[in-house]
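Task 17 of the worksheet. Students: predict the tertiary structure of the chain below and write it out as structure tokens. Keep your answer in the requested format; marks are given for formatting as well as content.
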Amino acid sequence: MLLLDFLLDNARMLDKLLHDRQDGKSDEDGERIDKCDDILRKPSAKPEQFWDALRDKCKEVGGEWADNHNRIWAFGPQGAGSCLLIDARKPKALAS
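Model answer:
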């Protein structure tokens, strides 16, 4: 499964996770199947496993994606889609 498929399959859950984080709530409703443009999508990860699954998916895709899981700033559109805003800045050297 490609990274895009993973994000599309888990978009509803990601939206819920991000909103719950902002609201300070926790609900593990990630099993619902969503219909989007005649395509049925079932989450491929449980809510508590999403961030680890995203990291593993990035490593599986490899190349420039291998270490980008921790550089994602935002998902879009509307905060939970398959478009990613990645922090591409080079790390600053640590002051001695």
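Marker's comment: The helical segments are 3-9, 11-23, 50-61. Confidence is low (pLDDT under 50) at residues 26-31.
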